[in-house]
Amino acid sequence: MAVMLNKRDLTSFRFDWSMKMRTIIRVVEYLSLYRSRIYKSQLTYNVKLQKHLNIIPLLIQTGNYGTLIEKGIKNSTCGELSLVDVGTQVKLRGFLQYQRHGMFCVLRDAFGITQVIVNNDELTAKLDKITFESYVEVIGEVLERPEGQTNTAMKTGEIEVLAQELNVVNKARKDIPFLIRNHNMPSESLALKYRYLDLRHPHLQDNLRFRSKVGKQIRDYLQDVENFTEITTPTLSINTPGGAHEFVVPTQFEKKFFSLTQSPQIYKQLAVIGGFEKYFQFAICYRDESGRPDRQAEFMQLDLEMSNANFPEIQTLMESLIKYSWPKELNPLKTPFPIMRYDEAMENYGSDKPDLRFSFKISDVTDIASQSDWTPIRSALQGNMVVAKAFVMTGGGEYIKKSHQKSWEEIAKKEIGLPGVSLLKVQNKNILKPMTGKAFSEKLSQLFVNHLEAKEGDVIVMSVGHKSKVLKLLGKLRLAAAEVLENNKIFVRDKEEFNFLWVTDFPLFEMDETTEKLITCHHPFTAPKPDHIQKLYENPLEVLSQHYDLVLNGCEIAGGSIRIYEEKI
After folding, report:
1. Closest-CA residue to 265 (of 250, 244, 290)
2. 438 Cβ partners below 8 Å, 6+ apart?
3. Helical segments of 7-152, H only
4. What are the TM regions of this chain, as residue ranges (predicted)?
5. Helices and strands counted in the chain (H then E)
6. Coil, strand, or helix at residue 152?
């Protein structure tokens, strides 16, 4: 039987005992004994109970979980005990992570790990038979670790628990597929097969709890600060042509089907038309994009829609939202985020979502390459609309091999449709030497090196062909070059650095290479820039859209646009 203490000032409360015996317990004063045990809670009612304390469990509600005080035993997690708890009787429950000769073990739960000492022959024999990952309950006393045995890598590294009782709540099989160890991770296929076991890994626990925490922060900001309304829209919908393939859901009616929504697009715009000026939801989207290995069939996105908004307002909103939700453990963000035009991103980085943590900027070398007598370059420059572009892979000369030349040429031919790529090592006296073939002349080498500001030990990655294809290829190889360096412990992308970037001024249309017809670059309802409306009738390929993407370290994490609201457009 348990009694809940609420935040209201209580002077007395009642409960029924067996055989209808009634006892009145009065709250007399705070018990300082438990003050340090429940510091996480806003509710710190420390009470002194009368003679019934030894028979009546008392549940004191805390901020995150309950603290059970039963016969003087504190119900604790495996990540909270410290020196202030020394001498306290505690009850722990967790998975058996380690055990050694039945003398000590380590319990793990969602909050951390705690070392347990066993010096009782009966408990030692019992512990020795318990399999790893069994769920175990320990009752014991908190002790300070002996001098020199503290573990600063553990939150509980200054204490240990001397076991007085040891019970198996749920025993694991001896032949479990894998143990929870950071140094011996399971393969991806094995981890997915036994997902429930894989989820016990601390990094996955941290990821899901982090996601939950950020989600709450986002909700709080949008609702409490910006006055957004959260609306849940249907996921069963009708077929909407265009975009990705949809998942079809049969019904009990013959030849009647639903489609799972690719996004809440239709419903959220109906909500806005209906008078909800600021809408949001955490929407689950379904897209059958099996041909794109970087896409999930089912994913969740933060979906927002606003009436009467322009890009500067959206920019301010999103930056404020991210800043509000940003974890305090990470370096604080600087706002406003920089803005880059689409054509600038493509020219310099070969991508509309550039990773700015490292340079490797693309430069035009058409004029210099045209002076080359090297057959692959000279022949490639003969066509119309042909350019030569290159970037410098700083310090790559030691790590680039012929195998890279071969694999990168495969990318050029199969993915881009270009004949190949040139890898030029900067050797002694700044002479350029291709992976195959003779070295460039001293004069030509010097022109390349000076223009690109390369130095001995670097690699110049160059491609020749149609401009759009060359930029696309070099954008891919720029990332591949960074990966080669990092595989050799030369880290050019700081994992602690977060480079946000707005990309704007996307083209509204592009030409489909297969059908040679105009198609929209993004959504068909994206509005053109107001001063480009006339170009819709004159030269559609020059029209810029009011679309914008938010990029973080080379990944598009958000995107949106101003909608078309004029019927004639």
Report:
1. 244
2. none
3. 121-128
4. none
5. 13, 27
6. coil
Burial classification of residue 528, based on how many CB atoms lie within 10 Å of its CB (0-12 exposed, 13-18 middle, 19 or more buried): buried
Q: Vertex 168, ends 166 and 170: CA angle to 5°?
A: 160
Q: 295 to each of 27, 286, 287, 291, 383, how far by Cα in Å?
A: 58, 10, 9, 9, 36
Closest Cα partner for 78 from 169, 154, 168?
154
Give dist(CA 92, CA 94) in Å, integer: 7
The answer as to CATH 3.20.20.150 being correct for domain 205-308 is: no
DSSP state of 358: S
Give the number of residues written for the chain: 569
CATH of domain 77-170: 2.40.50.140
Nearest alpha-carbon partner for 521 in 465, 561, 554: 561
Q: How far apart are CA 178 and CA 133, in angstroms?
A: 10
pLDDT beneath 50, residues of the chain: 1-69
- Containing 109, the helix (H) or strand (E) segment is strand 104-109
Position 70 scores a pLDDT of 53
pLDDT at position 291, please?
61
Question: What is the C-alpha separation between 123 and 140, in angstroms, rounded?
Answer: 12
| Alpha helices (H) in 350-461, listed in sequence order | 366-369, 375-380, 402-410, 442-452
State both tokens at 92. Answer: 């722990």
SS3 219: helix
- Residue 563 is classified by DSSP as B
Say what the pLDDT of residue 241 is.
75
Supply the Cα-derived Rg of the chain in whole angstroms: 32
Q: So what's the pLDDT on residue 242?
A: 67
Look at residue 410 in the predicted model and tell me its pLDDT.
Answer: 96
Q: Where are the alpha helices (DSSP H) in 261-365?
A: 265-273, 311-325, 342-349
So what's the pLDDT on residue 40?
35
State how far Cα 324 lies from the chain centre: 17
pLDDT value, residue 71:
61
Per the CB < 8 A criterion, the answer to whether 545 and 529 are in contact is yes
CATH of 358-493, one of 3.40.50.150, 3.40.50.1820, 3.40.50.880, 3.30.1360.30: 3.30.1360.30
Instruction: Scan for tokens 């670097």, then name that residue.
Output: 458
Burial class (CB within 10 angstroms; exposed 0-12, middle 13-18, buried 19+) of 126: middle
d(CA 483, CA 336): 30
Residue-range domain boundaries for the chain: 12-71, 77-170, 205-308, 338-356+496-569, 358-493
Beta strand 67-70 pairing with 58-60? antiparallel
User: Which residues touch 349 (CB under 8 Å, ≥6 apart)?
Assistant: 355, 356, 361, 362, 475, 478
